[in-house]
Amino acid sequence: MKKPWHRLAAGVIGLVLSALNLPEVPETYRITGEAQGTTYAVTYYANREWVDRQQIDSIFKSLDASLSIYQSGSLISRFNASEKGIEMDKHLMNVVNRSMQIYRETRGLSDITVYPLVRAWGFGTKAADALPDSAAIRRLLTCVGSDKLKISHQNLLKTSPCVQIDVNGIAQGYSVDVIADFLEGRGIGNYMVEVGGEIRTKGGKLPGNEPMNIGIETPSATEFDAPAIRAVITIGDGAVTTSGSYRNFRESGGLRLSHIIDPQTGFPVQREIISATVVAPDAITADGFDNALLAAGIDGAFEILRTHPEMQAYLIYKKTDGTVADTASAGFGKYLVP
Amino acid sequence: MSQPATTRRDFLATGLAAMAGAGLSAAFTPVLGRAVRPADKIRLGLIGTGSRGAGLATLIREMPDYELIACCDIIPENLQKGLSLAAKNAKGYSDYRKLLDDKSIDAVVIATPLYLHYPMAVAALQAGKHIYLEKSMTYDIPQAIDLVKKVKASGLVFQIGYQYRYYGLYHRVKEIMKENWLGRITHFECQYNRNSNWRFPVKDPKMERAINWRMYREYCGGPLSELCAHEIDVVNYLTDSRPVKVVGLGGINYWKDGRDTYDNIRTVYDYPNGVKASVTSVLSNAYNGYSIRILGDKATVEILRDKALIYPEITNNPKGVVDGVTGATIAVTTQGKGVEVKFGKPGEADLEPTVFALKDFGECVRNKKEPISNVETGRDGSIAIHMGNAAADTEKVQYWKPEYSA
Q1: Chain B residues with CB inside 8 Å of A223's CB?
Q2: SS3 (DSSP) at A154
Q3: CA-CA 20 to 30 A from B369: which of A7, A194, B311, B352?
Q4: Residue A59's pLDDT is what?
Q5: Is CATH 3.10.520.10 what the domain over A28-335 is classified as, yes or no?
Q6: What is d(CA A57, CA A240) in angstroms, rounded to the nearest whole number?
Q7: Phi and psi at residue A189, to the nearest 5°
Q8: Phi and psi at residue A261, to the nearest 5°
Q9: Inter-chain contact A205–B323, Cβ cutoff 8 Å?
């Protein structure tokens, strides 16, 4: 137990320090809220409140105005409604460029033009009245494929009016990066940014500089289970995202339909992987690849990972006997907190 | 029926002729549990064409399975209303026994005050009619026990009008419970409240008791038998069990208008394994009038009239141990707010639950199946209701006796 004179001494030192305008003991600032249909939490360690909630919310606003399919006036909605295409802003250009790159690197498993199929399966902005039949899927597949997108200067063009894009699979990761960059621009070097389970961290927890622990959630049986932690990792300066088919699904005749649609078949992914956690230098990369790993299956996922040494992954999957097991890429072990 | 040479009517006539002069026990042989041919409409008689009966007639009119060929009510206006919803040339009766004598009627729907359920059901069984009897089943416990015996001996289809057993919403809730979405369920909180005196207008004072029978113990069990009956049945259905004991308090503290049934009653039923169900009816507050909350250690389900919401429990916040959690995106709505339970198939018509119950009754009559809401589940509901009222009347714990379900 501290003796009173200790406290007094601490108070005096604090006063002296502030009078001299010397750096004080850094504090923890935590901003939480709701955005993009989910929750976010920004935690940073600094000696002053360099960033406040208003600034974070305004970043989300500018991201939504560009990337949200839920806003009819957003840039992406205007692209989807257009005949030929539109002029992009900075956000849309960043996201589309990176998506196209990942589309090529995953041989089409990650494809932002999957939106017409997402809508048909009832995972768009509203639930579908009925499930699509294979004829409808075949029809829609003619509108799907990122080769039907062309980038010319600032413009994003489509080869057919029916081509529509949905960047929900990557936008959260991108948003995490945008906020992280904003914090760094304010001179903040110790932070954790989390948007809907996608995370980027830098530095440590001040004043002790302890590493930031990140729990990897166990896929739960239902949409409503409180998250349980399956493993704890610490990633230093980098990003981690998780894609799971376990949270967003709809029931159809007792079958769970995953919200992740295979752009090649047009049908919801029914793979053995139920959760893919990816660690990468930035969140747009991690988020851009996690759905593709899920869709690729265990062997396909490891094939993608072999060509990306900067990325490590942890996969939870269902074995043929129904039991749940996990596996990880070789480099993932170094992140695990024992 | 494999009697291609005879028409259905012929067969019925022959069957009944064969029965003529036979004793009561013979009347309960399954010979009268006759099948209706798929192409034929089931010919219905409706006994009791008051508010509920007329409501049923309105639904039946739209159903291709049925032809409503006779109505019965002692109040002429009610009877006229019933006939106006029935088939052309439907017959009107003021004496239900006369209606039961009509041999062309395959099945009867009984929607009369509770005290009439037992004698009418027994008479209908004797007349060889399949029965759709409105809830709750009987006026007292001995009647409930006896009716089980009589129905079983009859071989006739006997369904109790607990329509929620036929409603996709409740099927889905039961499924969710089985899938352990709610965790361990320890309590049910049921209420059926309204903010009204629950009376119907009476032109002739002589008709007060006939019209406002819900106000009088002579005719029914008050709010517990006429309102909460559904919820007691739902808890029985969802838990696949029946109460072990019950405590209760009731009173007439707000509507002091001459009624002798409670205007407020609060009971707590104890189910196997310590699961408790509070069942309440208050006639002076209508907030969330009809609601059943199911409390589990992982989530709560709140069932309202035509929807149900899930409220997940916020248990040991993992952020206490870790600084962040990576997982599939959690929709904002799953955190502390209710999430609507989806049920039914995409594009399926959103029908009044009673339509599903009546449809199934038709199925059971045609295929001689036992209804999901049958005489035994009906008995369990009725006995529970009477135990609840007795608990409030005596201010003593009432126990389910082994002979109730022997």
Answers
A1: 334, 339
A2: coil
A3: B352
A4: 97
A5: yes
A6: 22
A7: -115, 0
A8: -100, 135
A9: yes
Residue B126 is predicted with a pLDDT of 97
Q: Which domains does chain B have, with CATH numbers?
A: 8-162 (3.40.50.720), 166-356+383-405 (3.30.360.10)
Q: What is the 3-state secondary structure (H, E, C) of chain B?
A: CCCCCCCHHHHHHHHHHHHCCCCHHHHCCHHHCCCCCCCCCEEEEEECCCHHHHHHHHHHHCCCCEEEEEEECCCHHHHHHHHHHCCCCCEEECCHHHHHHCCCCCEEEECCCHHHHHHHHHHHHHCCCEEEEECCCCCCHHHHHHHHHHHHHHCCCEEEECHHHHCHHHHHHHHHHHCCCCCCEEEEEEEECCECCCCCCCCCHHHHHHHCHHHCCCCCCCHHHHCCHHHHHHHHHHHCCCCCEEEEEEECCCCCCCCCCCCEEEEEEECHHHCEEEEEEECECCCCCEEEEEEECCEEEEECCCCEEEEECCCCCHHHCCCEEECCCCCHHHCCCCEECCCCCCCCCCCCHHHHHHHHHHHHHHHCCCCCCCHHHHHHHHHHHHHHHHHHHHCCCEECCHHHHC
Among residues B281, B248, B287, B288, which one has the least CA distance to residue B264? Answer: B281
Q: What's the pLDDT band for A82 if we cut at 50, 70, 90?
A: very high
Q: Are A279 and A288 in contact (CB under 8 A)?
A: no
DSSP letters of A116-147? HHHHHTT-SSS--SS---HHHHHHHHTT--GG
Please give the ipTM for the structure prediction.
Answer: 0.78
Question: Is pLDDT above 70 for A261?
Answer: yes
Of A226, A247, A253, the CB nearest to B329: A247
The verdict on B310 touching A (C-beta cutoff 8 Å) is yes
**Could you read off the pLDDT of A93-116 as tens digits, one per residue?**
999 999 999 999 998 888 899 888
Q: Which two tokens stand for residue B138?
A: 């009987």
A6-20, A142-156, B15-29, B300-314: range with lowest mean pLDDT: B15-29
B320 near A CB under 8 A: no
What pLDDT is recorded for position B312? 80
| Cβ within 8 Å, pair A127-B346 | yes
Count of other CB atoms within 10 angstroms of residue A252: 15
Q: What tokens does A335 get?
A: 């992140």
CB B300 within 8 Å of CB B311: yes
Q: How far is CA B152 from the centre of its chain?
A: 19
**Contact yes or no for A198 and B326 at CB 8 A:** yes
Q: How far is CA B146 from its chain centroid?
A: 19
End-to-end CA distance of chain B: 34
* Residue of A119, A123, A199, A224 to mutate when probing chain B, most B C-beta within 10 A: A224
Note whether B327 contacts A245, CB cutoff 8 Å. Answer: no
* Positions in chain B short of pLDDT 50: 1-33, 333-334
Calculate the CA dihedral of residues A308, A313, A318, A321 and round it to 10 degrees.
80
For residue A136, the model assigns a pLDDT of 84
- Cross-strand bridge partners of residue B109: B46, B132
